[in-house]
Amino acid sequence: MQEILRFHPVYQQRVWGGRAIETTFNRQLPAGEVIGESWEIVDRPEAQSVVTSGPHAGKTLGALVKTHAAELLGPQWPAERPFPMLVKWLDCRERLSLQVHPPEAQARELGGEVKTENWYIADTAPGAELTVGLKKGVTREAFERAIIEQRVDDCVHTFRVAEGDSILVHSGQVHAIGPGNLILEIQQNSDSTYRVYDWGRVGLDGRPRELHVHESLKCIQWDDFEPEPVRAAPTSEVIADCDAFRIRRVVLGPGDKLHFRAREQPRILSVVSGKLRIGTAELVRGDNAILPYSGEFSGEAEEFGIVLVTDNFAGAA
Question: Any idea which residues are catalytic in this one (predicted)?
Answer without folding.
Answer: 195
